UniProtKB/TrEMBL annotation:
The protein, known as: STAS domain-containing protein
Cellular component terms per the entry's GO annotation: membrane
Chain segments annotated as transmembrane: 76-100, 106-123, 130-148, 194-216, 222-241, 253-270, 282-301, 337-357, 369-386, 406-426, 464-488
Transmembrane helix as UniProt keyword: yes
InterPro entries per the UniProt record, alphabetical: SLC26A/SulP_dom, SLC26A/SulP_fam, STAS_dom, STAS_dom_sf
Biological process, per Gene Ontology: transmembrane transport
Domain of life: Eukaryota
Phylogenetic classification of the source organism: Eukaryota, Metazoa, Chordata, Craniata, Vertebrata
Source species of the chain: Oncorhynchus mykiss (Rainbow trout)
Every STAS domain range: 519-708
Record's bilayer topology term: Multi-pass membrane protein
NCBIfam families found in the cross-reference section: sulP
């Protein structure tokens, strides 16, 4: 047999008084903290001095901070190499992602230039590459094709008159980008950057996977060389696939072969880059290399004329004059602009956070909103479309040695050189090459589907969020899919808070540790004591659930027991009035029905009153005349509030009602590990009275247990030490045990006389 090595456990011993909350407050004086008023906060906010002005300037223009510490000799060369590499990738991705936005390719170069310049001054991340992001481009494309469809007339909008179809689409894309930027800027100024926290990693993963599917389908028409109109709205992906397969026999073989060749080569080289990234000084820019080769081959063999290949075509030299947004388009696109603003910021902030942790600097979510808002507003004025950050492009900027946004500024200069001087070299580039580059870069997003089995095994609600978000985004569109996913995510949060996993605890033998009684073999449970734990806040939505679980834990319904007892007292009073109930009379031959007087139910909910009786009743003993009352075996209940972070007014009322019901059936209730904020709120809300007293609050669970054991000494025969794993260890009944009734046997007259004069000793459960 294998010998297990015994580990010597460290031990500690603490000797201190047994504390209730009141006793602790009496012994240990608290520090009085002065809380600032709203007026003080407002005054402080609008107070300006030299230090605040300096901090505000550094906050609004973060580039000043890192430029002051810029290490010219160590960082400049790395930024130059990174800027050139990122610029080449940005040119290619700008052209490719313009196709996703249903715009002429050269407008992607504008998106790779203007937002980058603005972010250089306002952004807090030093490593992300700002520009076109495929998911945002696709969302812009959905808006563009809805207002200016490929087939049929555009939506009736003032300002479209006299414009070509491409110019109308540019106006739509620029206007929705401008509106998106206004929303981001407003959220940044209002300091609501925390809103991104509501987009969990699971939701973003499912959403981006669905977006990758949409992108893949949208690029099939370029890869196959087919003419497929752009569609938007629910089930648009299904209709697009239908139109593709209807004309699949018209596939352009040259486009297909070129695309497959590009995808295979780029995929293989990217895998080499990933595998040998530690040995390679810089990643091989395979997309740029294949693009240059494809341009040369297309120009040499005249693909456009000889093989009917759709190419990029004329790229205008220089930049176009700025224009203002169309207000009518604002009204038509506000619903789509908001999710675009959220998604663009969420993705960029997530990537920026990864690099900030890796390189040990701080980013500001609100300032990032301001930076991206200003970038999109200024970019839209110069006819660029929605900008965020692409994961692959940011990875190139960081992995090639980029230290600051100097690399981003240099990448923008590379894009400017292409726009102003050498853009004509890209005119023979087949669009199928751009589609192939887009598709092969979807690998990371598509492979996120591997998270599903892991989520299913670890956290099924999160798995449901992922699946619902992904399927809804695929079938309903990205905007509606995001809304559905966010709704499902919030529902899971509500359900987890509304239906928490409550538990009954027990003492781990020989320690002051308390764990769930079902999970451990050696536990100690004093007779008549229950410990109940709720691991969530208590509020209006879960107070009824809390009370129901509490009833299951103690094994009886206290309100029902109280009403039964008061009904029994009514019956006993009637018997005493008739003079029939004397200690010398035997009622074994006669039974009396329980009082059915329901005229005043409120009286039944009041504490049992023995003042007009010459005797007191032991409710756990057998009662005369077949009177039946549920038996209560619990004398003490401990509520563990260590995980309760807040209580609202509805919960306070429900909690107080539950406590009173238990107290009125002679169950002592103790609340332990209650947060100081909750205790303060209880006092301010007049929670305590003659029945519910502040003395029931104890510092720790063990303090309350020791107090109970001191008040109710446990005999050795009543001590429960469980070494059997199960729901009924040592005779302890299941949490769902029902009310148990004591029936009087008519054969034994001695059982009839359980009403005793004035003094009743309940601790040893004997009738005198």
């Amino acid at each position: 047999p294998l010998k297990t090595k015994r580990v010597k456990m460290k031990q500690y011993m603490v000797t201190r008084p047994l504390y209730s909350e009141d006793a602790f407050a009496d012994v240990h004086e608290k520090i009085h903290r002065h809380h600032k008023t709203v007026r003080h906060h407002v005054k402080q906010y609008f107070t300006c001095d030299l230090k605040r002005a300096k901090n505000a300037a550094l906050s609004l223009l973060p580039f000043i901070g890192w430029m002051r510490i810029y290490q010219l000799k160590e960082w400049l060369l790395s930024d130059i190499v990174s800027g050139v590499s990122t610029g080449l990738v940005a040119v290619l991705q700008g052209l490719a992602y313009s196709l996703l936005a249903s715009l002429p390719p050269w407008y992607g170069l504008f998106t790779a230039f203007f937002p980058v310049i603005v972010y250089f001054f306002l952004g807090t991340s030093r490593h992300i590459s700002v520009g076109a992001f495929p998911v945002l481009s696709l969302m812009v494309g959905a808006v563009v094709t809805r207002l200016v469809p490929d087939e049929g007339p555009p939506v009736n909008i003032t300002g479209f008159e006299g414009l070509t179809s491409d110019e109308q689409r540019v106006m739509v894309a620029a206007s929705v980008t401008f509106l998106m930027g206004i929303m981001q800027l407003a959220m940044g100024l209002l300091q609501v950057g925390f809103i991104v926290m509501y987009l969990s990693d699971t939701l973003v993963s499912g959403f981006t996977t669905a977006a990758a599917v949409h992108i893949l389908v949208s690029q099939l028409k370029f890869v196959l060389g087919l003419v497929v109109p752009g569609l938007s709205g629910p089930l648009s992906i299904v209709y697009t696939l239908e139109k593709i397969f209807v004309q699949i026999e018209k596939t352009n073989v040259c486009d297909l072969v070129t695309s497959i060749l590009i995808m295979v080569v780029v995929f293989i080289v990217k895998e080499i880059n990933d595998r040998y990234k530690a040995k390679l000084p810089v990643p091989i820019p395979i997309e740029v290399i294949m693009t240059v080769i494809a341009c040369g081959v297309s120009y040499a063999f005249n693909f456009r004329v000889n093989y009917k290949v759709d190419v990029v075509g004329r790229i205008p030299v220089g930049y176009e004059s700025p224009m203002g947004p169309n207000m009518q388009i604002f009204g038509q696109t506000a619903v789509e602009a908001f999710p675009m603003a959220i998604v663009g910021f969420a993705v960029a902030f997530s990537v920026a956070k990864v690099y900030s942790v890796k390189h040990d600097y701080i980013i500001d979510g609100n300032q990032e909103l301001i930076a991206f808002g200003a970038s999109n507003i200024i970019g839209a004025a110069f006819k660029s479309f929605a900008a965020s950050t692409a994961l692959s492009r940011s990875a190139v900027q960081e992995s090639t040695g980029g230290k600051t946004q100097i690399a981003g500024l240099l990448s923008a200069l590379i894009v400017m050189v292409v726009t102003l001087a050498i853009g004509f070299l890209l005119e023979p580039l087949p669009k199928s090459v751009l589609g192939a580059v887009v598709i092969v870069n979807l690998k990371g997003m598509l492979m996120q589907i591997r998270e599903v089995p892991y989520l299913w095994r670890r956290d099924r609600p999160d798995c449901v969020v992922w699946l619902v978000t992904c399927l809804a985004s695929i079938l309903l569109g990205l905007d509606l899919g995001l809304a559905v996913g966010l709704g499902i995510e919030l529902l899971t949060v509500v359900f987890r808070a509304q239906f928490p996993r409550c538990s009954v605890l027990a003492n781990i033998t020989g320690t002051d540790i308390y764990k769930e009684r079902k999970d451990y073999m050696s536990i100690y449970e004093p007779q008549g004591v229950k410990i109940f734990r709720i691991p969530s806040p208590i509020f209006f939505a879960n107070i009824d659930f809390f009370r129901g679980k509490l009833v299951e834990a103690v094994g009886f319904n206290p309100l029902r027991v109280l009403r039964k007892r008061n009904k029994a007292l009514r019956t006993i009073r009637k018997l005493l009035k008739k003079g029939e109930n004397t200690l010398k009379h035997n009622f074994h031959s006669q039974s009396y029905p329980e009082s059915e007087d329901e005229s005043n139910m409120e009286d039944l909910d009041q504490p049992t009153d023995f003042k007009d009786l010459p005797v007191q009743v032991n409710w756990n003993s057998e009662l005369p005349a077949n009177i039946q009352v549920p038996r209560v075996d619990v004398h003490s209940l401990i509520l563990d509030f260590s995980a309760v972070s807040f209580l609202d007014i509805s919960a306070l009322k429900g909690l107080k009602a539950a406590l009173k019901e238990l107290i009125r059936v002679e169950v002592e209730v103790y609340i332990v590990a209650c947060d100081a904020y909750i205790l303060k709120k209880l006092h301010s809300c007049m929670f305590f009275d003659d029945e519910v007293k502040s003395s029931m609050f104890f510092l720790t669970l063990h303090d309350a247990m020791l107090h109970i054991l001191d008040k109710h000494p446990v005999n050795s025969e009543n001590t429960k030490v469980s070494t059997i794993h199960g729901n009924q260890c040592n005779g302890v009944s299941s949490l769902r045990s029902r009310d148990r009734f004591v029936h009087v046997s008519n054969r034994d007259p001695s059982n009839l006389f359980v009403i005793v004069f004035s003094k009743f000793v309940m601790n040893n459960h004997q009738s005198l």
